[in-house]
Amino acid sequence: MEREHFSKQFDNELNVIREKLLEMGGKVESMIANAMKSLVERDTELAERTIAFDHEINTLEMVIDEKCLEVLARRQPAARDLRFITLALKIVTDLERIGDQCANICKRARELNQEPSLKPYIDLPRMAKAASDMVKEALDAFVRGDDALAIKVCQDDQCVDELNEQIQRELLTFMMADPKTISRAMKIIQVSKCLERIADHATNIAEMVIFMIKGKDIRHTIA
Q1: pTM (predicted TM-score)
Q2: 97-107 pLDDT tens trace
Q3: Which contacts (CB < 8 Å, 24+ apart) does range 39-46 have?
């Protein structure tokens, strides 16, 4: 009975970590959406609020880190439980960096909103949606232990990379045709690069999920 009680407490502690990670993931997804909205709708106030919101992401990172280290010290987990906790410690780092990228997008939006529009934003929202879906699916794969979904996330990174290249090619033509557009085009390219990095962080999470499930490091092996 005592052993069963211990096991139940341990399971509860792992569930707390899992729920906190999902909470952090949900907040990060909202940040991606709001960052893009502040750019597309030229909403500088929303950009400012989203930059300030990054503080909540940083706080959650510290809370989850502390909980993971506490469980490691008190329970000394092994095998799959140990992989789960070490993976959680890495996932919070990727989520925190996604929050940083969202804040960077908002800073560029704040600057771009003070200038005339260069062109309608069409591919950037598509890219943001794809990157946000990758983050959500990577976390779903983590929670469900779904390696097939994690592999899909890794493969979807190619789509975001192609959109990034397409946006950069298009903006290059703007800059070549009219040097007055260079400053605005470079800021939009920086936004595109931020989204590409968000997709890379989602891919990192998915690769770690595959390692947690399969015990196999597949980094740099999925085309």
Answers
A1: 0.90
A2: 999 999 999 99
A3: 39/105, 39/108, 39/109, 39/112, 39/113, 39/121, 39/124, 39/191, 40/121, 40/124, 40/125, 42/109, 42/112, 42/113, 42/117, 43/113, 44/109, 44/110, 44/113, 44/114
